[in-house]
Write a structure and sequence with these properties.
Elements lengths: L9 H13 L3 H14 L5 H13 L3 H9 L6 H13 L3 H14 L6 H14 L2 H13 L6 H13 L3 H10 L5 H14 L3 H7 L5 H13 L3 H22 L3 H9 L6 H13 L3 H13 L6 H12 L4 H8 L1 H6 L5 H13 L7 H13 L3 H14 L4 H13 L3 H13 L23
Helix pairs in contact: 1-2, 1-3, 2-3, 3-4, 3-5, 4-5, 5-6, 5-7, 6-7, 7-8, 7-9, 8-9, 9-10, 9-11, 10-11, 11-12, 11-13, 13-14, 14-15, 14-16, 15-16, 16-17, 16-18, 17-18, 18-19, 18-21, 19-21, 21-22, 22-23, 22-24, 23-24, 24-25
Length: 439
Amino acid sequence: MLRTVVEPNAFTLSVLIKASAEIRELNLGKSFHGLVLRCGFDCNQVIAAAIIDMYGRTRQPNDCRKVFDEMPEPDAVCCTSMISALTRCDLYLEALKVFHIMRRKHRFSPDFFTFGSTLTAIGNLERVQQGKQMHAQAVIGGFHENVFVARSLVDMYAKLGMVEESQLIFDKMENKNSVSCCALLGGYCRKGEFVVISLFRNMVKDLYAFGTVLRACAGLSSVRIGTEVHCQYLKRALVDLYAKCGYVDFAYKIFVTMPVRNLITWNSMIGGFAQNGRGKEDVEIFKQMIKEGVEPDSITFIEVLFGCSHSGLTDEGRELFSPMYKVYGVEPGIKHYCCVAEDLISNSKFRANTSLWAAVLGACTAGNDLNLAECIATKIIELIPDYHLSYVLLANMYRTAGRWKDSHKVWELMQDRGVKKMPGKSWTDSSSFNPYLYL
């Protein structure tokens, strides 16, 4: 863009700064900051907030302060970005000072992001009274039910040693995730209570959860439970690894030896059978999961329907699709419909109809499901090798996913087979000519 002497606008620069913040590239972020100054956008509030956030994520608090202090009139977004940045840099007291400046000097009303970061700062400072006051303000403002604020409240009370209050808020949360679970785990871990073990067994686990509960086991001097957790983590990781690498039988051998299996482990095993064309085993293990009382989620149904579709199990796929919402409360999305549609078209007399396949493939690309789009595009290329759209959509999806070599291979295959991309066309209606448009 710069090589073509096109000057970037404020929107372009804010997006680039956010991108450099996400990948934690400080030098790149500084380069964009310099470009902002050169283009004269240093007083733009949106860009200033993005720069503060970028320096916060790369743990450069002094640069955050400099940008914030040089702003003549920072808005609420800039103040919130500053609070968040200081909290990320473990400067909790300074984060609270900015919050008070925001409220008393600038008279800005905090939003859920402001409350979330401020509650985190209070929890780390272990200020009980101030934490309760901030909780009350969040309730008055109607932000206490927000996922981000509720998670921060769970974390704050856990760090304050008020595990009962933390548990109460956690129980009221509609959307519990691993972050809120780990915050509660940490609270019980600090108090040295065995409740942490039972909570861990019933939660969706990630790497941080395993680390937290292992620290709890060390604090409780529980070698047996610690060994169990260690083995559980290794086995879960191995099931996922071998299933995705094509060694599905070996993955299953590890799977059946696991004393505790959560939804993620079941999904890994179901997905392993599905991706390796083992549709019957895919359906069987799904039924086994239901018998053991594990509730399926959206990912479970994508995996099992995908397995049915690629193993020709049309009837089984329909039987599983029908009760998705009525029985299990899982609302079908684009990916679920794509799996069922692919199966129906493949086994119908219209399987050579390009418009039907184009609709299914287009839905896959809209849903950003690369695996499903890859399988459908491959099938279309086999059935209708001269259909240009299957090559184009697949190449574009590879490029979006960063798989440039695969994208190039698809274009090469298209050229080798002599398949031509249809040129784009547009229509204009001369009857709707408006002479005033050209004045």
